[in-house]
Design brief:
This protein has six helices and six strands; from the N terminus they run E-H-H-H-E-H-E-E-H-E-E-H. The chain has a six-stranded parallel sheet.
């Protein structure tokens, strides 16, 4: 049985699609996800990254993110076979902690509160695997780091990459 730490934003919850959805709703402009590949997170939108970063402070942003395809089924299978912890930075943005908890309760009701870790820095995380989309979380990790593909990290080659939950399942189940 392996201990697996799984990030939420960009791994379970589709943050990029949420930026696109909220931007379209507010500015009437539909941004193609493909145009965001290789750009820093929150960049690539016509009004600039300050507008997109502003969404992170708005009520509902974290609560209404779309679920990433196949994540529920694969995480449930991992949870049944391994020791799984959801590890998410939830201290920087005022609404993120309660909204992330509500989101998890709705979409991943099988994950008990004992297996949810909200933190500021993930440098304290000890596990066999960490699935995350950010270099800053994977670099200090002592176990096997798995980079979950997101538009902002497509050019990073320092970590073993997983492009989908189907790939995660093939690797860890």
């Amino acid at each position: 049985m392996a201990r697996i730490a799984i990030d939420m934003d960009g791994v379970m919850a589709d943050t990029t699609q949420q930026y696109i959805n909220w931007y379209a709703e507010r500015y009437g402009v539909q941004v193609d996800k493909a145009t965001l590949y290789g750009q820093p997170e929150t960049s690539g939108f016509p009004h600039g990254k300050e507008v997109i970063r502003g969404f992170l402070y708005e009520p509902g942003f974290f609560r209404t993110k779309p679920v990433i395809k196949d994540s529920q089924e694969v995480i449930k299978a991992l949870y049944d076979k391994h020791e799984v912890f959801i590890v998410s930075a939830a201290m920087e943005f005022p609404n993120s902690l309660p909204e992330k908890l509500e989101w998890l309760e709705e979409f991943y009701p099988f994950i008990g509160w004992q297996n949810i870790v909200f933190c500021g820095s993930k440098t304290i995380v000890q596990a066999d695997y960490m699935i995350d989309d950010h270099v800053k979380n994977l670099q200090p990790f002592k176990g096997e780091a798995l980079m979950f593909t997101a538009p902002h990290n497509v050019n990073i080659t320092d970590f073993k990459r997983v492009n989908s939950w189907e790939e995660v399942g093939a690797l860890l189940l």
